[in-house]
Amino acid sequence: MNLANRITVARILLVPIIMFFLLIKVKFPHIRIEEFSITYNQIIAALIFIIAASTDSLDGYIARKRNLVTNLGKLLDPLADKLLVTAVLVSLVEMGKVDAWIVIVIISREWAVTGLRQIALLEGTVMAASKWGKAKTAAQITAIIALLINNFPFTFLHFPFDVIASWVAAIITVYSGVEYFVKNKHVIDFSEKSQ
């Protein structure tokens, strides 16, 4: 359990804390500025999410820089990312802030690519993250933050940035998923093999 892996575990442990602040049935005070309104618990959840999301790059950097890459880290890192994004997106559906179909599309892609990665590993192949995979992560995080902070400051401009960001995240997520499967179609062998 090296430093990089501890950071990854910390990211996992932040997930239930974020969900607690998002889904707790307690009336928190609001901050109101003209037509904009947000509760303190949403602000706290957004700040914790930003901290948790930022550790994704940090643990990878530390692992590579200090030569701390381990099999445990390879397992935990993508798991932590998916837990974080999935938990917050499902919470946002519960709060009525994002359409369920967008979340279903994103989660389906994440687990489909995870399955493909597992098959590739069994074949002795490591699937590197593509530029579209990285763009997908950035788009998802941007959309989630915009939804968590109630479209601030775009509310004042009457511009639905949070909705547009959600659609963009869904589109890039699907595209990057298709790209993974097209580039790695050799990993999946649908032909019958003799015993």
From TrEMBL:
Record membrane topology: Multi-pass membrane protein
GO molecular function: CDP-diacylglycerol-glycerol-3-phosphate 3-phosphatidyltransferase activity
Entry-linked InterPro entries: CDP-alcohol_PTase-I, CDP-OH_P_trans, CDP-OH_PTrfase_TM_dom, CDP_ALCOHOL_P_TRANSF_CS, Phosphatidylglycerol_P_synth
Membrane found in the keyword field: yes
Pfam families: CDP-OH_P_transf
Function: This protein catalyzes the committed step to the synthesis of the acidic phospholipids.
Protein family: Belongs to the CDP-alcohol phosphatidyltransferase class-I family.
Record-linked NCBIfam families: pgsA
Name this polypeptide is given: CDP-diacylglycerol--glycerol-3-phosphate 3-phosphatidyltransferase
High-level lineage: Bacteria, Bacillati, Bacillota, Bacilli, Bacillales
